Amino acid sequence: MGMGDYSPGSIWYYAPNKAAPIVFIVLFFISGCIHAWQTMKHHSWRTTLLLPWAAALMITGFALREVGAYNTDNLTYLIASTVLIMSGPPVYALINYFILSRILFFIPWLAPIHPGRVATTFVGLDAVCEILIGQGAWRMANSSLTVKQRKLGSNLVTASLSLQAALFGAFGLLAAHFHYRANKAKALSKDLRIVLYVLYVSATIVTIRCIYRLVEYIEGWDSTVYKNEIFFWIFEAVIMLLNTFLLNLYHPGKRLPRSNSVFLARDGVTVRKGPGWDDDRPWIVTMFDPVDLWGLFTGKDKKTMFWDMSDEELERLRREKKANKRNVLAGALDPFHLWGHNGYIGKHIIKKKPATSGETPVKTEDKTAKTKGARDTTDVV
Question: Where is this region: Disordered (predicted)?
């Protein structure tokens, strides 16, 4: 019996292949272990920590599919495996967002938007995709529901996949725009070029997979794509395995700076250490206004151009940031940083104490340096 042939009594329509899930479990497990090892080796926690998690989602999904292959009348295995396997690719997309964000932190003076806004905007919308998939996939796979209920599930997944496709398109345009500007400024090292090319390939792979799922759910559960298992193994399993192998072979943690505070000077060679490019707006505002249109209109964004500051000014900003850094308890009790002297709400309520005689008040507003002093001579990453 070939892949896609009808199997009486199977809620999958066909008899699921019993050997293929084992192969992919082993390969994704090996790849996930390598992801974890390379993340620890290169200390790239903030950029690639989710790589092992994405592999774990795929492994668990394939494991349940293997169990379901021996219990073709059990609806639970079909639903659970479908939801888990469909949740893996959006996590890989999420990792690509973090990678681009780290590149923009490294070359801030060429960033089309604030690097942190790449994360908040794309990650926030990606979370919406995950919720829609979780709510829609189980309804779509549940053959015991009514046609109307399954159609609702199909519509939810279709909406999620459409949003994903739009996100990938916007993400690709953003990366390409930055790439063009960086090439023109001759600011890209060999390592950064490799990371960008890998980013494009990875995003393309996830997009192809997204298109496959979009076609499958638009055509419905009675379509050729849905009823033929071969499409699943090619456009879901194989291409996502290629994606995870690609990110292992060219692991971004090996080629990107470990800290967001490290940035490339305008000469394209010198690496300097700054205060980090913070966005003092509430996170919910950054998600809905990633470009900071109000800041651009008022000129507020110009005050954050630390890359044109002297070494002395950068050192002062680092000291101020360290002094204002919140402890773990404060972060847990007030995760949105609403209260306190520097909180989004608290700073408008709490009056700062006037400076005592002989004491110079510390300025908290950045200013652009009139001179570009000596630069650190650390080699570029």
Answer: 355-381
* Whole-structure pTM value: 0.75
- 310: closest CA among 262, 376, 264, 257? 376
Q: How far is CA 266 from the centre of its chain?
A: 27
CB contact at 8 A, 196 and 175: yes
Contact 83, 93 (CB under 8 A): no
Q: How many other CB atoms are found less than 10 A from the CB of residue 190?
A: 9
The Cβ-side half-sphere exposure at 357, using a 13 Å CA radius, reads 0
Cα gap 202→174, rounded to integer Å = 15
Whether 252 and 39 have beta carbons less than 8 Å apart is answered as no
Q: Which two tokens stand for residue 371?
A: 């001179």
Fold (CATH) for 20-254: Rhopdopsin 7-helix transmembrane proteins (1.20.1070)
Q: Which residue ranges does the chain devote to CATH 1.20.1070.10?
A: 20-254
Do 35 and 248 meet the contact criterion of CB atoms below 8 Å apart?
Answer: yes
What's the CA gap between 16 and 298, in Å, rounded?
60
